[in-house]
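In the lab's daily routine, each protein ends up as an entry in a very long ledger. A line of letters takes care of the sequence, but it says nothing directly about the fold. The fold becomes a row of whole numbers, each drawn from a learned catalogue of backbone shapes. The protein below has been through that process, and both of its lines are reproduced in full:
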Amino acid sequence: MELKDIIDLKAFPIGNTDFRAACKKEFNETGVFVMPGFVQKGAIDTIRDEGIANKDKVFKSTKQHNVYLTPKDERFADDHARNRLVTSSKGCITDDLMPQGSPLRQLYDAPVFRSFLCDVLGEDAMHQYADPLSSINLHFAEKGEELGWHFDNSSFAITLMVQAPEKGGKFEYVNAVRDADLGEMGFEKVNEILDGKAPVEIVEADAGTLVFFRGRNSIHRVAPNEGDLTRILAVLAYNAEPGVELSEAARMTFYGRLS
């Protein structure tokens, strides 16, 4: 499959300097950039079918965690924003199970796509993970499964909706809740969000939608899937430096294995 059969290059001319600059401007201003229909239907159908064919290899996990994705801090009460627990439950297929000829792998590896990412994200280079599991993941959320409120440790995330749920399963976020660099953790705002008292932004994403998101200081979640159709999301993970591996502890937590 050629790149023009994967990406709608007429709507998204990712090699064009002016287009890249416009994308970068919007992303810098809002912390989120949404491209509906970025991946064409034929390619997204193939990616979906590849995922479903490997569904028996999904690693499923349900975990409780705080929004900071850190161990409990004994200096605070259990009901303090620092230690309040939320639930994340999902299934995952790892990079090593993706077919070599998959349109998803072609997209991930395409030099013009990586160059586009560098320009929009303000990075010098985009490198795959050195470990065999972490570069491309497919996440599956069945009915009732969710990704609890949290902040990311990384500076950006790139996701592709492969199969949208029939009901629920929306990506929700609140911008600028904390300032991790200054150590301002936004406890009061976090409590409001966990109590359902704060307005949230919602990203609507049909199959084929590519999303850039800065989640280090903006809290976000995937609401519970309320329908019978599985929500399938591809996560494209890169590093600014070569040779980076996800830690063994993280791999065991996310994937249940090291290789």
Summary: The chain has one domain: 3-255. The chain has a mean pLDDT of 95. Residues 3-255 form a domain with the Jelly Rolls fold (CATH 2.60.120.620).
